[in-house]
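haha ok so turns out i had the wrong file open the whole time. this is the CORRECT one, sorry everyone. sequence first:
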Amino acid sequence: MQTMGESERRRLAVLAGHQGDEAAARSLLADPEPTVRAAALGALARMARATPGDVTQALSDRDPAVRRRACEAAVRGAVDVDLRYVLDDPDPAVVEAAAWALGEKEEGTVELARVATEHSDPLCREAAVAALGAIGDPLGLPAILAATHDRPAIRRRAVIALAAFEGPEVDEALARAAGDRDWQVRQAAEDLSDG
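then structure:
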């Protein structure tokens, strides 16, 4: 397969996932091109044939696109791997994907709260806040409340995340958000108050 070009090998990997050809997908997991490796892992996840070893290996891939795909594969293929350490990845897009995956798997509240309050990248903080809202663990509430003071997109996400919680601190945060200077934050607070 090495005589084929990258796009042809990537196409083969994608087709393998749609045709249930596990052998073809596996043969491309070690391809020299990251787009092909990512497509092969995605194909295995589509077939629900990705193993914890496949995902774990991809999580340590040198290319961030493959690491992002590994986070998606862990959810899509229902692969039982620990993704919490991936929140320390140097690539913000990988951290964002890991936060989403942890929210889907309803795991990692403590680690997500750290990302939501301490990460330098706003998209990572926003993804962590969304994941905390999806999980709904009371341990994540302080980080969500803190996020109601962050940038507008993060404040909006925090208000939406508050839907999973009740209590006077939640009511206070929603009341404050109803008067936020950003119209999307105000709208999110209004939508929650009406519901």
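Residues 1-80 form a domain with the Leucine-rich Repeat Variant fold (CATH 1.25.10.10).
again sry for the mixup
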